[in-house]
Amino acid sequence: MCAHAVRVAMKNIKGIDRVDVSLNKGLATMTFTPDNTVTMKQLQQAIASNGFTTKTSAVTVRGVLRTTAGKLQLTVSGSNESFDLLPEEGAAKPGLSDGRMPDGKMVEIDGIVPEPAKDKPSSVIRYRTITELK
Q1: Measured at the alpha carbon of residue 44, what is the angle toward residues 11 and 13, in degrees to the nearest 5?
Q2: What is the pLDDT of residues 49-92, one digit of tens each?
Q3: Is residue 114 within 8 Å of 125, Cβ to Cβ?
Q4: How many other CB atoms are there within 10 angstroms of residue 126's CB atom?
Q5: Between 106 and 25, the higher pLDDT residue
Q6: Per-residue model confidence as pLDDT tens digits over 19-55
Q7: How many domains does the chain have?
Q8: Are 120 and 79 part of one and the same domain?
Q9: What is d(CA 76, CA 15) in angstroms, rounded to the nearest whole number?
Q10: 32-41, 100-109, 121-130: least confidently modelled range
Q11: Which domain holds residue 32?
């Protein structure tokens, strides 16, 4: 499979703006349009249809932060997918300067999505940072 074919397959997903592929590094970098509704499942299916598997992925994602039953969750803007949020080892504890959690607020998460189980979309983001957006 060539990098061009992977790039074309990913670009055919509405909401993906740019795709850079390095087969030597086993890496695809995608940039999305601001109004995208792309889901993790769509990405994983496109990757699998080209003969590859989804590995751990670095992400920067925006959405609404919620605390439900003591668990942090993110509802992603556009796709409305929900992800449980768990800290990466050494991650800063989320919260505003006064210690309050920005519950119900728009945030940006930097972190990783662990390698998913076969044929199952990822449901967890391990965050490095959570930043409230103004």
Answers
A1: 25
A2: 878 788 888 999 999 999 888 888 999 999 999 999 998 887 66
A3: no
A4: 19
A5: 106
A6: 888 888 888 888 999 889 998 888 888 888 878 788 8
A7: 2
A8: yes
A9: 14
A10: 100-109
A11: 3-54
CA 59 to chain centre: 5
> Residues 87, 110: one domain?
yes
Q: Which of 53, 57, 75, 55 is nearest to 66 (CA)?
A: 75
Query: Angle at CA 31, nearest 5°, toward 60 and 50?
Result: 110
Of residues 74 and 11, which shows the higher confidence score? 74
CATH number at residue 45: 3.30.70.100
62, 94, 100, 101 from 97: Cα distances, Å: 20, 10, 7, 9
Nearest to 6 by CA among 115, 20, 14, 15: 20
Q: Where are the beta strands (DSSP E) in the chain?
A: 16-22, 27-32, 57-68, 71-76, 82-87, 106-113, 124-132
